[in-house]
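Tokens in:
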């Protein structure tokens, strides 16, 4: 149990996260959250199932998890001194209903040096993060400002999720 007052367990969904060509960032996270929720939902269960996915987008381009350290460096160099968007899609399934929504947060990075980027990449933190950074971790030094929900950037817009869950409880 946490501050939401709800008990939960995390169950990774074993899905193919390939995206259809030309899909928008908001549509991409909604699609991924939906197939994740559907993969773990148990028909007829009294439980409520939530799937979520977060991506970073810059100039309309989706920045997925980096393939390696060079790819992480490339992404962070691109984001340095610029503003990008972070999208999280959430799907709730339960009690004969389903709802999908997405949230967007705008994030502005400081202009960081190549040395700072390489040092951050060497920590290993960017390895499994869309856009190659974690605002809640060491990557916080990159962030100059953000507009919107920081929890969305972390990976789950918890306040919005709690409001949306009302119709399932």
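Residues out:
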């Amino acid at each position: 149990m946490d501050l939401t007052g709800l008990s939960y367990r995390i169950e990774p969904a074993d899905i193919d996260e390939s995206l259809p060509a030309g899909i928008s960032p908001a549509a991409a996270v909604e699609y991924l959250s939906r197939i994740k929720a559907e993969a773990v939902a148990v028909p007829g269960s009294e439980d409520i199932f939530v799937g979520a996915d977060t991506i970073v987008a810059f100039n309309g381009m989706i920045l997925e998890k980096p393939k390696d350290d060079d790819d992480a460096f490339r992404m962070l160099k691109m984001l340095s001194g610029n503003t990008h968007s972070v999208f999280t899609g959430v799907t709730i399934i339960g009690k004969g209903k389903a709802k999908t929504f997405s949230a967007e947060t705008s994030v502005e990075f400081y202009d960081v040096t190549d040395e700072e980027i390489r040092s951050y990449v060497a920590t290993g933190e960017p390895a499994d993060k869309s856009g190659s950074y974690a605002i809640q971790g060491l990557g916080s030094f990159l962030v100059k400002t953000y507009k919107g929900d920081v929890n969305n950037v972390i990976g789950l817009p918890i306040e919005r999720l709690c409001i949306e869950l009302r119709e399932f409880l």
